[in-house]
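Subject — a protein and its fold
Fields — amino acid sequence, structure tokens
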Amino acid sequence: RFPFTETEDQNQAIVDVIDDIGSGRPMDRLICGDVGFGKTEVALRAAFVAAMNGVQVAVVVPTTLLALQHFSTFRERFAGLPIRVAQLSRFVSAKNAEITRGELRDGSLDIVVGTHALLGKSVEFSNLGLLVVDEEQHFGVAQKEQLKRLKANVHILTLTATPIPRTLQMALSGVREMSIIATAPVDRLAVRTFVLPFDPVVVREAVMRERHRGGQVFYVCPRVADLGRVERRLKDLVPDLKIAKAHGQMSPGDLEDVMTEFFERKFDILLCTQIVESGLDIPSVNTMIIHRADMFGLAQLYQLRGRIGRSKTRAYCYLTVPPGRILTTAAQKRLEVMQTLDTLGAGFTLASYDLDIRGAGNLLGDEQSGHIKEVGVELYQHMLEEAVASARGDDDAPGEAGWSPQISIGAPVLIPERYVPDLSVRLGLYRRLSGLVDASDIDSFAAELIDRFGPLPDEVENLLRVIAIKQFCRNAGIEKIDAGPKGAVIGFRDNRFGNPAGLIGFIQRETANTKLRPDHSLFYRGDWYDPHQRISGVMTIVEELAQLAAA
């Protein structure tokens, strides 16, 4: 029934989801796949498995247009099967909506597709088993928690091309499972993207070229108030073409009629707001012009661009800005990123960039973005790993693998602002630093820094050496080091050392400089008034202790 060939990543995502459903515990999986890469097919397969096993499926989407499209897709795919599908949105009359709610209560309806209407208190399910959330970046935290309250042990499948920073952080840190669909469908071409000041000649040329190759055009405005003015201008530029308007303030019947007629190619241009942003699939539309692109967010622009180029035809996207206007730094950066990310499958890259820029938000609260301030990043990550492992019934894991040595050396260890001025880039570098595990990783990271930003300042050299020291400490079971001008105090994890005989031999060899204290910590005498000497001295000791522990 699927009219295309599944990609490798798509097949893997389908296997992951079906395994989760059969695992005996509630699924909470994020499918991160680029626009047009086949996320809906994964949801269709999951819904089929759930419905055929006798549980109800709810598919929640952000817009009425997307609800209508998904309803049509699900109904067509499951035609002839014992699966009943209905929709619940403002396109549905009050009478039919009441019938649908009744069928959900008595269990005679298998799959319901809807907007926020599904979150209302009047909607009750007989046996909800799977919840699919499409375009999750459009829902707030409160709405998502409301979704989960539909049933405590419900399977949750979230689909998005550009997860918000909080969601991406949850997936990267293991709070949620994640499948990435990065393989483009066969014969799919990347969308060509142009950022330019508004120019009537370019707009006319773009629209007429699309018309001559038999296609249609989306012309997107940021506000409903702009539509009238832009429509008058378009009628002057291309008087022979038919223009339709679509926006969220239209009545459901009118909006449905316009979209149906546009889909049937009765119009050449759809002049609209970002109501077309979410999940619409009209293969004949392969040119998009975005009016005042500086007023849209990064994920919005990316989702809008994803509405075109959904067939084998090359698509073109024009991001227009007012001529002569100086854009804000953030708007300029967004447009630069859009022009840079013109390869297929760039959605995950864009979301990672968004996470760097805006921060991960609060995983325990409502903030969907923002950087961690009250708790250090490392402690925060450690607390998170412990909580995740505990929730998975794996309580020993963070205790063994997630601990981090405390090292105090009395020397500045940081990436200074004068070396990397951009805050977002610095935060990205810090996150990468936390993942370095061996000397070769550290060396290649240092080489990259020198290549990108110039010679390493003392603070960065200190930082890289402290990371190397930390790795030796973990290998040696050293929990804490306090180093100063006159030496270092070394504390062992749980007051134990992996090779007691080797430690005694070390103390006997270094008898003039070492002393075992009553609290089982080791004091090493040094003459380290220079911070560089201090770091080198500590490095030598912990490297030797790590070798002893391994032996």
In short: The mean pLDDT is 81. The chain has three domains: 8-181, 192-328, 404-550. The chain has 19 helices and 18 strands.
